[in-house]
Design brief:
heterotrimer, A alpha+beta (243), B mainly alpha (139), C mainly alpha (141), A: 243 residues, alpha+beta, 5-stranded mixed sheet, two-stranded antiparallel sheet, 16% strand, B: mainly alpha, 3 helical TM bundles of succinate and fumarate reductases, 63% helix
Chain lengths: 243, 139, 141
Amino acid sequence: MRTQEVRLLRFNPERDAEPHYETYAIEIIESTTVLDAIISIKDFQDGTLTFRRSCRQGICGSCSMRVNDKERLACNTRVEEIIKEGQTMTIEPLANLPVIKDLVVNMQPFWKKYKAIQPFVIHDAAKPKPEKEYTVPHAQIRHMQKFNACIQCGACYSSCPILGTDDDYLGPAALAKAYRYAVDPRDDATDERLRIIGNEDGIWRCHTIFNCTEVCPKGVEPTYAIQQLKRMSVKTRLGGSPR
Amino acid sequence: MSTSPTPGGGYRITRPYKVGYTHIRPGAIDTGTLAWLLHRITGVFLVVYLLMHIFIVGQGVRGQEAFDHALAFVQKPVFVFLDAGLAGVVAYHAFNGLRIVVFDLGWGIRIQKGLFWVSFLGSVAVFLGSLYVVRDLLV
Amino acid sequence: MAVMSREQTRARQVARQKQPNTFWPWFLQRVTGVILVVLLAIHIGVEHFGNLNKPGVMERERELIIFSDVAYRMSMALWWAIDLSLLVFVLFHGLNGIRNIALDMGVRETGDKVVTAVLSIVGVAALAFGIAGLIAFKRFA
């Protein structure tokens, strides 16, 4: 049992003109997670503290936030894991998105871009249907599963410096999902997908900074997906076929 | 950051909130972020240097005397040292650029951090090598 | 799961042919970059550091680069080819890089047209000045 200093970025739109930091002291043990910490602050010190959380087991994606300048899921990050002796823990909401209150951000830009890449399989009605079901080789499904693991937590979106200066960039999550559908053998709209993401708002804005890959709690590796999309674009542009 | 008034008299943030350079996360600069930052900084520096360089060498239009006069100025020992530094900067931008091209070909993404250190140490080697090559002129 | 009609398929084929032309700047940046690694290695090695330990250099009060050396190189077609390619590729690569920074800052459409126009003018002007400089060496040699 020891004392930990926690610095939170607070913002109440009905009272404050700008976000500001407030410091709290809490008692923690070895297994205390960041989510435990802010719940204890809300329960015992300031009931107005607002944040999103749900499953508390790292699968819903609600509790992603910046802890000591790095995006993490609050529920599966232990304080002891990231804090050195005597260091203050600073918690801020996700970056690159408007702040609604305290640690709650407006995820609408994130969802808008996610929808823009058409995250569903598109069939060509002109092609003949298979006799039974559409078959996909096992290796292919396993490859796509990695990008299906995305829980849309927004950590990658917050960590990308390009989104820090450019609001139009589609972002790692949307592009990784675009890749998942571009390589799905059941999908016939590859050309259209490459057109949607092959412009200055899409893959050409990625500079392989790798922040997204570093912070993804599910190991999705958006950078890898975006690089493959660039390869597919090159192949299409130079006269070949994307897959 | 932009704000709009709320009925309670405070303000709602309508654009992403930013403090200074939070988008590059000063407290958590990873290898990939550092590689990109240095690449961009060296790139801008080299463009500025390039335009100066074209201007200076272009002094040849004014004849041999003018050219040798201009060049003699930029060959004092301090400039020779900076020339070796320039070689190092070009080498960093070139090696990291090749690292990026390797990623664009679809290879090496899992070892991206190792590749950065290779390109960084390579550019330090080029800098030190250049210093060695011009050592007689540094006095 | 979305199923398309024939009209939609056809519309997509048409749309594919009208892809926005933003692939080439990205692609050429890589192509010129790789070529520049080689050209710059030659340029710096020969034209910046190449005069060292040559007889006569130290007696000339330690000057590394002088007019007559450059003029001599300009009498050879190989060096013309190298220096000309260097000028064109490096100006494209550098100024396209600046344009990339503008795009990363969120500049699009009208702002992008302005930035591209300004950078193109700077590029053409620098290229012209550089070529005039190279020609001058040949003329004065």
